[in-house]
Amino acid sequence: MNSLTAMQRKLVYFFGILVLMIPTMLLGLPAGSEGGGGVIAQKRAEYDLGESNLGQVDPSSATMNLVLLGFRGVAANLLWLDALDQQEKKNWSQLKSNVESIILLQPHYLQVWRHQGWNLAYNVSAEWDGVADRYYWVKEGAKFLIRGHYRNQIYPDLPHDVGTTLGKKIGRADEWLQFRRYFIDKDPDEQKYGGGPDNELNRDGLDNYLVARDWYEIANEKEMLRRNTIMARVLFRQYPSRSLMDYPDALQREGTFGELSEQGWQEAHRTWVNEYGREPYPFQFGEVFLEATPEEIDAMAKEYGVDANLVSKAVESLRSTANYGYWKTRSRIEATPEMVKAHRSLYEGQRLYREGKYGDVEVDGKVQPSEAETLTLEGLTLFEGLFQEHSELLDVYDTVDEVLMGIICLNYIAQVNNHPAPESFPLKSLWLQQQIRIPNLNTVFRSENRIRE
Amino acid sequence: MPFNPEPYNVLVSFLIWLLVFGGSAVLIALVSLLVALAVQGSEGVRGVLRLIGDGFTELFSLSFRRIWALATLTFKESVRRKTLLVFVVFAILFMFAGWFMQGSSGERADLQIKQHVTFALRAISWLILPVSLLLACWGIPEDIKARSLHTVVTKPVRRSEVVLGRMLGFVGIGTVVVAAMGFVGYVWVVRQIPNDARAKLVSRVPVYGTLTFRDRVGTATDRGVNVGDMWMFRSFIEGASKARAVWTFEGLDVDELKRQGGLKLEAKFESFRTHKGDINTKLFCQYRLINPDSKLFADVPPFPVNEFSETITTVAPTIDVYNDTTQERKAVSLFDDLISNGKLTVEVQCIDTGQFLGMARPDLFIRMADRSFFSGFSKSVVSIWLMMVLVVALGVTASCFLKGPVATLATFSLIVVGMWFRSFMETVVLGGTFKGGGPVESIIRIATHKNIQEQIEEDAISQAITMVDYAARAMLWLAQHLVPNFEHFTRASQYAPNGFDVDWQAGMLPVIFVTLAYLVPCVLIGYYSLKLRELESK
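Above: the input entities. Below: the structure tokens describing the complete assembly.
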């Protein structure tokens, strides 16, 4: 090398650069309109690694990652530590801005979105005392997950989490009654949402379970192309239908009965059987579905050239994982007018008790039981008939609890009217059988009806 | 870090400063004398004493004209070195910051203000600190390298004047930069804050009290109940019991309160429920105002607690009080009957049975008349300016005996340690319990296989070891105080973002004192270093 002149050395460098540039250019050619381009572009398209393939592109996030060079991990770690510290010190605004910074650095790391969405909706909201404040943080969690979904549109997990937050968190929290009113009718932030629901989450003022169902549908759509990382596929895909069951159930919990709840259960049953029940799940020998009749099992066995028992076992294993039969029966029974009436009677009986309308009434000189007592007894009698007809209802915890609460209510009505505890009443055998659950339910009843010791 | 301003004890700080400064000076002088005696005998001792004497002579014969001339040159040199380019970065930051900040704080007015003001102040301090650090640390080494200092020292200029001139010049350019950034930052914040949040853009003036507690049976205690929170900042009082949080306020300006038309109590409590209760209703809290001397009291109507946000209760000058014994209603004057010699006690109780309210000292204060936002913001900018002055002083001092890169690294390390590790150092030095004793005792324990639980026999040797360890600890204490406490500056810059005026006693005084406390030793060290330095050694 020493024998070369300065000019020769420069020429060698120049040609060296040129030689190295050729493979670099070949590797890094931009993607063509029909999927061509350099090797890197092709691989990026193959594995869905491009920013635009994953979802919306955020230029500030991409810039931040480039500017940090190789220190993205370090910066993200520091931000995570700081976020944890801020949460511990209840500095919510700082926590939120830290989370925003974290997602700038890790926009395609699903667990960041999932963890922080859940953290905001469940943990941070629980730190607040005011119901409206809690609701605000639940919404923040849901909105965070929605943003995560738009940034990572190919994954099914995030829309599923949005569904869970809007469905279960809003519909099943201690404050579910207030949360649902806020979500469906009137957001607490009247100034921002003009006395209507939060239009970022519920533009049309739908029930939270129906909005959740839409998100579960999106998740299922994405799940057809990419596996979810949350649960077994057969469970994951049942959520739109399950959400449709939660909808009439919530209506009934709120005291809305009749056609709306009946139709809700009918629609839920139809979707469960005709849509979820007909979805194909692959096995080694071929695809099977949950709602397969014995004839269809035989036909599938013939088509796949395997023993019918094998197909039957596969269907059974799916059904057992999804608890398919239970939900099928439950939605069918819940959709019957008798069941709706039984729910309504118990609900109305307890409502009247809560309103203090439990005293015996005198009609034509005769002492008659109060309407609260009459309705509760009517509800229990209807449930007795339903239990005899559908013994599987005895496995439904919620329904059994509802009935036991009805009997507790009956006892309290007797107590306030100075009557001895009723000797015989409908479903007495169930009451005696479930004694272990009574103290707990009694506490709940007392708390709901503000009965002091 | 929670916003928790604590009063600053100037006298104690001054005594500590005297001890550290005097102790270090004596220690350095003694070591120098001993070394000189060992190396050069009595001539050496005379030389050291002459050097000390020269220092005093120089101190009293400084020429402010020469210092000013050197400062002006330093200023011009800094401008030539493109220092003012920092404005470009500043301008870019402020031009686009609004894009990223709008609506990102949940639209609550106080949070929006907090974010905007924090950004403005951080941008100013994070831009000015590196610039002043680099300028200060590279100035003198560059002069030595370029031999321009050789020309200066041949003139009738004293070395102390070179040090002071350099410091003043760098402070001058820093002042221009901070003032301009402060002005732009102020205008930017005022313009960026949405209209609906502007009403909150003020500087609140709080009067904090001292907080004690009473437990559920009414016994006085330092802290309330721990409800299992990992963060021990707040402690809790139980509802519908004798538990109380007791704030004692002193030095209240009754005339100003009268002008205000009553007493404004601002609180930020935390709720904790042990049972669900009525979830539609927030927990309730009640104040009892008590005259600390006559014990006369008046109850203020209960109010719901707004968690994590301010609840303001205005107490009218006259309170209607019902006397249980006489069964009569009586009007009690807030200013004449309840506030006694500027003192007032406020007891806080939680009304709801089985529920708890959490509080810490800064969670309740008396709010005096608000000052303008400019007042708080400008004082925060002044605290940044003082921090810049301190950095310049440290940097110039370091550059008098170190080369540019090393001086930069040394000053930067001082800033980092002083800003983030000062509390840790205090815990280590003043933490109290030293498990296993000091360094000598630890060595002996290791050598004799004695764990930290085992007692060491009390004898003359163990007493000697304790003495040596005590001396080691004293040295650590001294070393800890040699690092400037930059946490005071961080605290001072927290007032404006939290919507407070910077308190003179707890906010401004510490930063002024810390700056002055390091300025004097820095000039002295700089002077002696430059005097003893061989300028030919680049």
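Note for the figure: Chain B touches chain A at residues 2, 100, 104-108, 111, 114-115, 230-231, 233, 270-271, 273, 276, 279-280, 282-283, 305-308 (CB under 8 Å).
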